[in-house]
Sequence to fold (152 residues):
Amino acid sequence: MKSHTEYLVFETKKRREMVHITDEVEQIVKRSGVRDGLCFVSPMHITAAVYVNDHESGLIEDIGRWLEELAPARPDYKHHRTGEDNGDAHLKSLLLHHETTLPVTNGKLDLGTWQRVFYAEFDGQRRKRVIVKVLGVEESAVPDGIQVDQGD
Fold:
């Protein structure tokens, strides 16, 4: 079993932003040397999320609007009594999932046709990290004569 960890670093230009990170995650999987396993992707912050969906601008806008309807930016969150102003960011991160685990097959992310990985920032404009941890077996760990199922 092999484990490989890298970190992505973001400092978004806007407070709320959806960042497409599939290519970066795929490169980490490639560098890991893992042939078959799992790739765990998680923001190391409580006002951000990682999710999988279609990379289509209209859908990304719809997701943003949906999140704003469910957890609108407003001044009356009890969390704001602490001096913070990001109560909605905490709630939005809960709605989208904090992390995702992705399959790795034959040394690549094994995603569906339209699946893409996104980092969702809800309290940005400062430096934030995302951990990417790849776990699995290396090429040399697969015994001769054993084939890894490549799906359909």
Notes: Strands lie at 2-10, 17-20, 34-43, 48-53, 100-105, 108-109, 116-121, 128-138. The longest strand covers residues 128-138. The chain has a mean pLDDT of 93. The domain at 2-73+86-137 is CATH 2.60.120.460 (Jelly Rolls).
